[in-house]
Each structure stands twice: as C-alpha cells, then as structure tokens.
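QA checklist item 7 of 12: single-chain prediction sanity check.
[x] sequence parsed
[x] length recorded as 179
[x] structure emitted
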Amino acid sequence: MKVCLLIRSFLLPYRPKKAKWNVLIQQIHFFLMSNDLLRSVGYSKFTMRLVPIIRPNTIQALKLDAPSIFSLLCSSNTNRNMDLYDFDDSVITSRQVATESKDAVFSSFFDIKRIRTLYANHGLEFAHNMYVLPGVKIIRINGYLKTQALAGTFAPTGTSTPIYSTTDKKKPSKHDLKH
C-alpha cells in the first residue's frame, strides 16, 4: 500500500484536468513512464512506440509498377481491357513484356520525360514504381540515387585505365605523377 501511495503522490502533479484527459500531449508523461516501468520489470513486449513507423502496407497504399499497371488495366479477363504499346508500336501482351518495357508502360500514363527531368535535377533515377496513397490525392514516386565517382578519385585497383592521355607522346615521369 505504501508503494501505491508513493506512486500516486509522484503522479498527482502531472495529472491533467478532467477536460484535457483526451488531449494527447497531456498523456505523453504517463505514456513514457509506463513504457519505462514495463521495460524495467522485464515486460518490454508490452511497450508501445510513441510514433509508429509508417510503411506503405500499413496505410493501404497501392503500389504501381509496370506489371501491376498491366494487370490492373490490360487484363484479358474483362471485356474492357486496354491495349498498351511499346516504343516499336507492338502491343504489350504479358506481364513479362510489361516488365521488360517499363518506360513504355509508364509513358502511356505519365509524362516520363518530366519525371526524368525532375529526378535528374536532384541526382536521382526513376525506379519505375510509385505508391498511390489513400484518397488519390498524393502519389509517391520512387527513385534511387545515381552513383557518381567523385572528381579526382582513382580508378579501382585491377583496372587498366591509364592516368595519362593516350595521345601524349611520352609517358609522364614518376615525379609528374606525384604532383
């Protein structure tokens, strides 16, 4: 009983007024304290995260890549299927061909040149997939960082790339290479 009274006297100053019990910021003190208490007594599996990690599958986003676009819009299971064409004006007939012709599939619905320009401005490459978030108000277009060699770096070992011009008449001396 003495422990309960000690905890009560410790928590009483932090208790919000009754009108503010549902306000999240008023509950954080108790949330953090209960997590610490559960961890200290060995029940860490019952703790909760303050901010959950949001993943596309938790927010029910629709992932669009070339095969899924083909399956959604060009499936032969319906009477109202759409024909997609590659850059040679051939009809894309399967998911495999759609995967091989990613640019053609995305160009059918999106301005691929504009996407590539936007990505190039930020040093990125288009990854040929995007997520349509709930409400269809936001589309998250994915990309990856272009790998670029830094200026003045050396070629990897084992390569035969010369460090002098092949049009030079004479090879540089060891002294020239050091400076």
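[x] summary fact logged: Strands lie at 62-65, 124-132, 139-145.
[ ] second reviewer sign-off
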